[in-house]
From TrEMBL:
Domain PHD-type residue range list: 15-132
Source organism of the structure: Melanocharis versteri
Primary location group: nucleus
The protein's annotated pathway: Protein modification; protein ubiquitination
Name of the protein in its database record: G2E3 ligase
Start and end residues of each stretch annotated as Disordered: 304-336
Gene assigned in the entry: G2e3_0
CDD domains attached to this UniProt entry: ePHD_PHF7_G2E3_like, PHD_PHF7_G2E3_like
GO molecular function terms attached to this record: ligase activity; ubiquitin-protein transferase activity; zinc ion binding
UniProt cross-references to InterPro entries, sorted A to Z: EPHD (IPR034732), HECT_dom (IPR000569), Hect_E3_ubiquitin_ligase (IPR035983), PHD-type_Zinc_Finger (IPR051188), PHD_PHF7/G2E3-like (IPR059102), PHF7/G2E3_ePHD (IPR042013), Znf_FYVE_PHD (IPR011011), Znf_PHD (IPR001965)
Length: 747
């Protein structure tokens, strides 16, 4: 045992013995994550530690190993070294049966082989093969076999360790191994009976019978860009004879070669010219959808209810050519299939008792299709949204410091950094004053524009410049760089100050700081452990990789010899006598390059962020501020824009009807069936194409009035919308006004 506890000469994570069970296996599904702590000379399987009988979590969650203190782990290893396993007869048996008077002890892997049961709940009990809990089988229950609903193989109806019965369904039987893999994949939020979908009763029984259900999100929700391929909008002409010389995939908006999708399924398309369509407003249905409606007898009815017919101007119907049969190679269109439906279908089918007619207040709550919540928005996105709402409230508290006294910044958009630096450093500038921005053209002729729109645009340009400036390095998540000239000019302080002022005064979420830099600001650099991906310098990263993946002592010493000058300059040059020394060396290089090297810029940047009390709030609410500083802003969606506005109307009928048209238009815009974007709509109303971290002041509202065209009142953030008879009239007026207004502004 002493040999097993001693530090091996050639330390390697993959081949190190677990100090509790003595095995080298690295199988996270069976034994839990294999963890190595070089500084404490400890390697163990997580489940071996979790199930050990003589250890408890005496520390906080962030202390030791999830609350297990290293001193306690060492004591447990010493205790287990005196106990012999009743299965393999070797020492180190740290797990004992909890049944009174039972003296059996065993290793975790040995217990699995001998069919012991380990309960991953409450106080993590373990039962030996003789005293383990069993499921009750009724005498009347039919014997035989049925299909396991997970692997679809046969499972025998027998009271055995390898077979488990559902507590909620009489005829649901599973292999234990299948259930365990299902639980590890689904996690606590999605693990449930595969037959009746019962969750609480099912999980309780499975935990009792030794199934481990991890407290995390499902594996398919944690996968990066898991649904990315579903976000592509279908762009392909499917008619038999495509007339476009540039091919079936060519799409040119606002021309006869623009692709129109089927208004019902959204998974078929045609060029306007290929189906003799003279206008984008004309509806088009693919042959499959038309044949379905024709068989059901509803096709004529739907055609009559359409806002725009697919007839030619002379009154003769368009003869559409039949597209080829559907084939697997083609995309199924957007995952948000409800967005591809025409609003006339979505809203004409609303019952008179629709929830839109029963508002709790002036706010109209409109629920989007369940497709979005089930497919696109995971729990992770929901948590991110909650954290951003929390940040919004915190920043509003900080904004109380801002006075009505104004400070005007004269800004040249072509040199945003110099203009901002000059403005922030002027003697009369105070972060507690209301900021007004005046853009001037290249001929220095002032364009008077003191509206919020100029301020929004200024902060957007400023954050974009900072992200790409020499003050930061890295691709997506950025760390501070070491720029001696910037240190000399105190630019790191100014950068921190600008970010703080931007957040409180209505700027966008920066979203480009790395988690390592954020943790240094919040917890202090001495408490942060950087990773290899934090190194932006390609040569330094390659040197670290070479050291990290050296597989022999001679290759490690050779690599160190080649880069000894660099290591000496970093203060990391040290004698290497064993392969395991490479881990300490890699850690030292990372700490030097990512943290110690930029100590002065980091301290200066921290002082800048103290402006208006932003850093203090970051340290009090780290998770919330991480959502806006380390994550890119959420892309605008129909749901987001809808939730942003409060609807007011003199008439309840006009409110409900107008809300229908408004939501339908947002969905058309999001699905690409409009000449404007959601950013254009936001810009038209508020003067900003993004939602500030602090939110809008005043909050955006909508009024339905008897007016000819929509009006965007940026002073009040109010969108005045016309009351129209049909959705098509509403959409046409929105398109015309927003597009022309923004075009004139840009010109």
């Amino acid at each position: 045992e002493e040999l097993r506890m001693s530090k091996p000469n050639n330390f390697d994570i993959q081949s190190t013995f677990c100090v509790l069970c003595g095995r080298t296996d690295d199988c996270p599904e069976k034994y839990g994550e294999k963890r190595t702590y070089v500084e404490y000379n400890l390697t163990f399987h997580y489940y071996c530690l979790l199930m050990s009988s003589g250890i408890w979590q005496r520390g906080e969650e962030d202390e030791g190993v999830d609350g297990f203190l290293f001193t306690d782990i060492r004591k447990e290893v010493n205790r287990a070294a005196k106990l012999k396993c009743n299965i393999c007869k070797k020492k180190g048996a740290s797990i004992g049966c909890v049944t009174p008077k039972c003296k059996r002890s065993y290793h975790f892997p040995c217990g699995l082989q001998r069919e012991c049961i380990f309960q991953f709940m409450e106080d993590f009990r373990s039962y030996c093969w003789e005293h383990r809990p069993v499921q009750k089988f009724m005498d009347k229950e039919p014997r035989g076999a049925s299909q396991c609903t997970i692997c679809l193989d046969l499972v025998e109806h027998i009271p055995a360790y390898t077979v488990l019965k559902s507590p909620c369904c009489k005829n649901a039987w599973f292999h234990r191994e299948c259930l365990q893999y299902q639980a590890l994949s689904a996690g606590i939020f999605f693990f449930r009976c595969t037959v009746c979908n019962s969750k609480e009763k099912f999980q309780k029984e499975m935990l009792r019978m030794g199934i481990h259900i991890p407290e995390r999100d499902a594996s398919w929700e944690l996968e990066e860009n898991a649904y990315q391929d579903l976000l592509h909008c279908y762009q392909h002409c499917d008619v038999k004879r495509c007339l476009c010389k540039k091919g079936r995939d060519y799409n040119e908006p606002d021309s006869k070669w623009e692709i129109k999708r089927c208004q019902y399924c959204g998974s078929r398309g045609t060029h306007l010219a290929c189906s003799s369509m003279r206008s984008w407003e004309q509806n088009w249905e693919c042959v499959e959808c038309r044949s379905i409606f024709a068989k059901s007898g509803k096709y004529r009815k739907r055609k009559k209810r359409a806002f725009a017919t697919s007839e030619k101007t002379d009154g003769t119907p368009c003869l559409l050519e039949e597209p080829p049969p559907k084939s697997p190679r083609q995309s199924s269109g957007s995952p948000r299939s409800f967005l591809l439906q025409s609003p006339k279908i979505m809203y004409q089918n609303l019952s008179p008792c629709s929830h839109l007619e029963l508002p709790a207040s002036d706010r109209v709550t409109i629920s989007l299709s369940p497709v979005m919540s089930k497919r696109s928005w995971s729990l992770r996105h929901e948590r991110l949204r909650e954290q951003r709402r929390e940040v919004c409230n915190i920043l509003k508290e900080l904004k109380v410091q801002v006075k009505t006294k104004t400070t005007r910044l004269n800004v040249n958009a072509e040199d945003i950094w110099s203009s901002a630096l000059k403005g922030f450093r002027q003697r009369i500038f105070s972060p507690t004053n209301t900021i007004e921005v005046n853009f001037s053209n290249c001929k220095n002729r002032s364009k008077t524009n003191t509206s919020a729109a100029s301020k929004y645009h200024f902060f957007q340009l400023l954050m974009l410049h900072l992200q790409n400036s020499s003050l930061f390095e890295g691709s997506s998540g950025k760390n501070l760089s070491l720029d001696f000239q910037a240190v000399k000019e105190n630019l790191y302080f100014e950068a921190g100050k600008m970010i703080a002022v931007s957040l409180v005064h209505g700027g966008p979420s920066p979203g480009f700081l790395s988690k390592t830099l954020f943790d240094c600001l919040v917890y202090g650099p001495e408490n942060v452990k950087p990773a290899l991906e934090d190194v932006a310098d390609v040569d330094v990263a390659q040197t670290i990789k070479t050291i990290k993946y050296a597989n022999s002592l001679s290759s490690l010493q050779s690599t160190i010899q080649d880069c000894c000058e660099f290591l000496a300059a970093a203060g990391c040059l040290r004698p290497v006598t064993a392969l395991c020394d490479k881990n300490v060396l890699v850690n030292d290089i990372l700490i030097y390059h990512v943290i110690k090297r930029i100590t002065v810029p980091l301290e200066s940047f921290r002082q800048g962020l103290e402006t208006l009390g932003v850093l203090e709030k970051m340290q009090m609410h780290p998770d919330a501020f991480s959502s806006i500083l380390c994550h890119k802003p959420e892309r605008l969606s129909a749901e987001t824009v809808c939730d942003l506005f409060t609807i007011h109307s003199s008439s309840e009928v006009n409110k409900v009807k107008g809300a229908d048209f408004w939501m339908g238009y947002l969905q058309d815009v999001e699905s690409g069936e409009s000449v404007v974007t959601l950013e254009d709509i936001l810009l038209f109303v508020t003067g900003s194409c993004y939602i500030p971290s602090i939110g809008f002041d005043p909050e955006p509202t909508i009024k339905f009035l008897h007016i000819s065209y929509p009006i965007g009142n940026r002073l009040l953030n109010c969108l005045e919308l016309p009351i129209t008879q049909t959705y098509q009239q509403f959409k046409n007026k929105m398109e015309l006004t927003i597009r022309n207004t923004l075009r004139v502004e840009r010109e």
